[in-house]
Amino acid sequence: VDLDTAKQELEEFIPHVRNISDSSIRKMAGRDLVRFKQFKKQGIAVKFGRFSQKENNQIRKNVEEFLQITGIDSAEKLLFTSRYPEDKETINRLKAEHLFCEKLSEGIPRPWRLIYYRARKMFDPNNYKGRYTKEEKEKLKKYHAMHGNDWKKISEMMSRSNLSVAMKYSEIKSAINYGPWSKEETQKLMHAVEEVIRKRIEDANSPSSSEKSNRDLLIDREKLYQKLPWTEIETKVGTRYWRQCKQKWTTILTNKMTKGQQLYRGTKGLQAKINLIKRLYAMKVEDANEVNWEELSNIIGDVPRAYVQAKFYKLKVSCVPFWQKKTFSEIIDYLFKKKLPELEEKL
Questions:
Q1: Which residues have CB under 8 Å from 165's CB, separation 6+?
Q2: pLDDT by residue (tens digit) across 173-218?
Q3: CB 134 within 8 A of CB 172
Q4: Cα dihedral angle (278, 304, 220, 22), rounded to 10 degrees?
Q5: What are the angstrom distances between the C-alpha of 160 and each of 191, 271, 317?
Q6: Are 246 and 224 within 8 A, CB to CB?
C-alpha cells in the first residue's frame, strides 16, 4: 500500500500514527496491518503500555518454539545476532526462511517493533547485572566522551544492555539536583514541555478548526501528559533526571486541573479510595494494562491518569501484604474484601 493509505488504515488502530516517521509507517504496514485486522475480527484491541505477564509468557513461548524449529543455539544469538559475526549469515538466513517476524509476534496484539524490543530486553543476559559500581560509572563517562551517544558500542564495551547504559548515563551525566524545585527549574520544565508539544502539533497534519470534534479535543488534552519524550525534556531542563521531570510535571498538571484543591485528603480522600476500589473491582480485568486509567481519573477529580496510577500504587503497597506475589486481580479482590469495609467504616 502507498504511504497515505497506510497512514489511514493504521490510524484506526494507532491514533497517534501521524506522529510516527514515514519509514516506521512503511514497516508497520508490512508487519502489522494484516495482524491488526485479524485481531479486530476477533474483537481484540491493539495494546500499548506495560506488557502483562501473559504477554511475556507468550513471547517466551514464541522464542522457544522458533529456536526449536531452526536449531539456533540460544535466544541471545537469535535477538543479538551482531554479537556472533561468525554465525550471522546462517542465523539471518534461518530467520528469513522461517518467518521470524510473524513467529515472534504470534498471539500478541501490539506493534511488532514493541514486541521485538520487549523480547530483546527479556533475553539480554547483559540486562540484569545489578547496580553500577563506582568504577563502571567512571568507565561509562570515559566511553561516552570517546563515542558520544553510540549506546550500542558502549553497551558492548561494558557488557550491559543499550537501554541500561543510556539510562544510567542520563542519571549521572551532570550534577542532578535532588532537593525542592526552584522557580527557575520549574519554568525551564514548563517551557521544555511546551516546546515538545508545540512541535508535535505543528508536525501533525491537524484538521481545520471547523472539523475539530470532541474526540480531537480529548486527544489535544492527552498530549499534555501521554508519551512525552522525557529524556529530551530532561536535557532541556539540565539539572533534573528524567523521572523527576515526569513526576514534577504530573504535580503541576494536577494542581492546574484541580485548581489547587487537596483532592486526596480527609473525607474526600477516603471517598476517592472507596470509589477507586469499587470501580476497579467492577471492571473485572485480569491485568493492569487492561484498565482505562483515563476513565478512572474522574473518580478522584479532573486529574492526569498518572496521578490515579500513583494513588493506586500507594494503596496496594500500604494495604496488601505480599502484593508482589499476587496477580492484579488478587490484589483488587483483597482490597475489595478486606480494605473496603475498613475504609467505609472510617468514613
A1: 140, 151, 154, 155, 158
A2: 656 677 888 889 999 999 998 888 877 766 665 544 444 444 443 4
A3: no
A4: -100
A5: 34, 46, 31
A6: no
